[in-house]
Amino acid sequence: MRLPELPWRVERRGGPLGRLGRVGPVGFGLVAGVLIVVVALGEANAAFFENLWLGTLGTPRGTENLMILAFPLILAGLAASVPYRLGLWNIGGEGQILLGAWGAAGVAFLLPSVAPAGLVPLMLLGAIAVGAIWILVPALARVWFGLNEIITTLLLNFVAISWMLYWAADKWREPLSPGGVKSERLPAAGELGEFEAGTVTVPVAFVFALLVALAIGLVVRHTRFGYELRMLGASERAARYAGMPTRRLIVAAMLIGGAMAGLAGAAVLMGEVQRYGPAVSNNTGYTGIMVAVLAAGSEVGVVAVALVFAAITIAGNILRVEGGASSSLVFAMFGLALVLAAIGQGAARFRLVRRTREKSPPPAGAADEAPALEGRIRGS
Amino acid sequence: MDLDLLTASLATALLAASPALIAATGELIAETVGVYNLGIEGAMLSGALAGFVATNETGTLLLGLLLALAVGAAAASIVAIAVIVFDADMVVAGLAVTFLSIGLTGWLGAGYVRETAAETVPIWNLPVLSDIPYLGEALFRQPVLVYLAVLCPIVVWLILTRTRLGLNLRAIGESPHAADVSGVSVNVTRAACVAIGGAFAGLGGALLSLGSVGSWLPNITNGEGYIALAIVIFASWRALPLIAGALLFGALGTLGNVAQALGWSVSADFFFALPYLGTLAVVAVLAWLRTRRAARPPWPAALGETFQRSAA
Questions:
Q1: Which residues of B touch A152 (CB under 8 A)?
Q2: Residue of A93, A292, A333, B121 with fewest CB within 10 Å of its CB?
């Protein structure tokens, strides 16, 4: 049986996507992902949206929450997005976060009596160094042996969890600590505090994350290194013909990614958490990958998507599902948004075209009728 | 080390290897036809929860296992549809399904946490073989699915190397255009293989929640789906070496128990990390050796590439 022919057919677009083709599917994925869950839970009422507004931009407290939830995602997003510019995957953000926070905590515990002006930069440097070291082996294995970096960075996450538990539950464990595994409190000098801007309390870590994103954006756009990164990302062959050190660039991009994740861990530790332990990351590394993919590697996009993800987290907390599983619910919404956006992005590469007899090649079996049909269309 | 400890360790290693082995076989099926399915972890996790819930709600293990197969296939089908129909990025689609599964199972499974399985996969003592001293006790007194896990790669190996179907599957992974010209429907076969691979992963997950663990825990797979991906790399995309890779992973996971029994003063955290660290090290060393021999890449040539029948 032959199916009747539709007046439209799907055609693959040539050339890169326009701005709408890139941003549209992401917006669709984020909005649809959340709405599907909210409607499925039967919570799509005015009270929910009012609470969402009050919980985010509607009140100073909500805005502060938004920033607190967004800053780790900005840094974790950059951790994945810098390698993503080269078509590389850093799926190890989760581990690099735990290790970066470990580096920062280690510096603080080793140098407890240094003043804040000295300790904070030292801790951040420690986080950058350890975060980068944690991705060094996958980066080198990639350029030396061609070993896929997805699986190596992934597996190291599980090693990092053991490393974290060893220090939080054993070496640095706070004796007689109630409520879970955590280290002793950091020295007060190692705290990233907050400041007042009008009615809103702004966490320093949020401003820090914005500055880091700005710095990465400037480096990528305005330096020779950034030019080489973009060139290599666009075409490896072209970069190689131009004599660029492709292997060194790949390693550099991955190390920057590891360092960003390390900073994310340090910033969370030095913000509200203050004790080294599992609380340093709430799947932040994995969420950062989603942020980077939805942002398509752009730094502005990372900041924007991180803020939207923060708002989705707040929405998830408003839904307050039974069993205290709201962080799982939020993660499911992120995943759903990513599935829908990925499908949308793929689909945006196609377009519907009205069937015109002149252009579309006649189907094999209908070859004999085709000329007659063509004539009729022209005649009418 | 005394023989009883060795026997017990071997038995535990085989049991620990089985879920990853089934999942790795599924992933190999998908990768043979050219689809890199990072959603395997998600399929495994969804299968683990679906199997557990169905078994506990109905009291019938068989229903649980069937649902685990179906849900694993469904999760993988999302990847297949996103990649094949909508031309989505393979890595993104796979990760998205895994993340969605982690979130959904964490949420939907919250009510089942720490409930024990109403029925677990029965243990089957193979006649005669299980009476072999030590070795028989270790290898042939296992849950039924463990034998199935070892059979999976053998059957897949036979299909891939000895049948016309296997030839077609490998052709799709090596050269989809040539396969297309010779009359194989590339994308339909790919979708089917990804779904079947997902079903395998779902069953592997169920072997955790209804077998070796025997209860539902959030994120129960703890990265075993990723281990399955590594086992496929370890095996150089061939079916039979999957068994060795999985056993290596299982053995590394058992060393902690051995150390405890022998009273070694090494932190337990080290032994939790060991299967991941060891798998990583082995895969890296094999990749290094391959580079030195300058051998042709062992993966299917079209792995990771989508297929569109071009007009030209």
A1: 280, 283-284
A2: B121
pLDDT tens digits, residue range A58-103? Answer: 999 999 999 999 999 999 999 999 999 999 999 999 999 999 999 9
- As a whole number of angstroms, the distance between CA B80 and CA B82 comes to 6
CB-based contact A93:A261 (threshold 8 Å): yes
The bridge status of strand A350-354 relative to strand A200-203 is: unpaired
Q: Which residues pair with A194 in a beta bridge?
A: A203
Q: How far apart are CA A49 and CA A186, in angstroms?
A: 39
The residue of chain A nearest to residue B275, with distances taken between CA atoms, is A159
Q: Give me the half-sphere count of Cα atoms (radius 13 Å) on the Cβ side of residue A12.
A: 12
- Alpha carbons A307 and A274: distance in angstroms, whole number: 23
Q: Which long-range contacts (CB under 8 A, 24 or more apart) does B252-260 make?
A: B252/B278, B252/B279, B253/B13, B253/B16, B254/B9, B254/B12, B254/B13, B254/B16, B257/B8, B257/B9, B257/B12, B258/B1, B258/B5, B258/B9
What is the three-class DSSP state of A87? coil
Q: Where are the beta strands (DSSP E) in chain A?
A: 8-12, 194-197, 200-203, 350-354
**Cα dihedral across residues A134, A136, A142, A147: positive or negative:** negative
d(CA A260, CA A92): 11
CA B25-B30-B32 angle, 5° bins? 90
Nearest to B276 among A158, A290, A346 (CB): A158
Residues 6+ apart with CB under 8 A from A65: A55, A56, A310, A314
- Interchain contact, B276 vs A159, CB within 8 Å: yes
Q: What is the rounded CA–CA span in Å between residue A350 and residue A339?
A: 18
SS3 B276: helix
CA angle in degrees (0–180, nearest 5) for A109-A115-A119: 50
Q: How many CA atoms lie within 13 A of A117 on its CB side?
A: 0
Phi, psi of A203 (to 5 degrees): -70, 135
Nearest-by-Cβ selection for A170 from B91, B106, B267: B267
ipTM: 0.90
Is the CB of A332 less than 8 angstroms away from the CB of B89?
Answer: no
B61 contacts: CB under 8 Å, gap ≥ 6? B55, B119, B120, B121, B122, B210
Eight-state DSSP code of residue B299: S
